[in-house]
Amino acid sequence: MGRAFEYRKATKMKRWGHMARTFTKLGKQIAIAVKAGGPEPENNPTLRALIANCKRENMPKDNIERAIKNAMGKDQSEYKEVTYEGYGPHGVAVFVDTLTDNTTRTVADVRSIFNKFNGNMGTTGSLSFLFDHKSVFTFKKKDGLDMDEMILDLIDYGVEDEYDEDEEANEITIYGDPKSFGDIQKHLEAEGFEVTGAEFTYIPNDLKDVTAEERETIDKMVERLEEFDDVQTVYTNMKPEEASE
Hints:
Blueprint: H1 5-16, H2 19-37, H3 45-56, H4 61-71, E1 80-87, E2 93-100, H5 103-116, E3 120-121, E4 131-140, H6 147-155, E5 159-166, E6 171-176, H7 181-190, E7 195-204, H8 212-226, E8 231-236, H9 241-244
Antiparallel strand pairs: 1-2, 1-3, 2-8, 4-6, 4-7, 5-6
């Protein structure tokens, strides 16, 4: 297994939380994509990738179409991507990705949770050395695919030589430079791969071990942060429970 697979597997459900909040978060992402590149998926690669993510999260087609239509409205809010970072309880590093139309409200909400759990918010970039920022693509594996040959081909597009394979779902997950997101997506589509997920993520490069009691407190902090509609994803460098056993 790749170094990131178990971490991503252990944190996926925590990151997205309940279905209603998931759809709200995806709707905001669609709004930004439509504003930037238009409402037609065939002409907007970012929107195409988001629709794949929506389908992966079982978001109904009507919800997706409604989010695209709403994004075209004149009264639609203008969302900004803002990341907050700092240390939570027990010295665990915390990244909070948000999409917000009111940064004053959002920073106050996020800071209140850091304070409540005796954490400290830092300045932007202060924890970048603890995480690798990656673009992540998941796609269906073709019959007879030679992965070594494919990875050699993808390296020219900023993809790492490490990948994860989910045999049950018959899917491959690759990791690459965030700046190469568009190039990687375009190449996968040109090669006829069915992309089932595309996103940006932060993967900790130094996992911190914690006790069961400490884990419970950190999990509570993450859950409280994810309750805010503006919060998209929360990342920590806490070692997944499976890896600690």
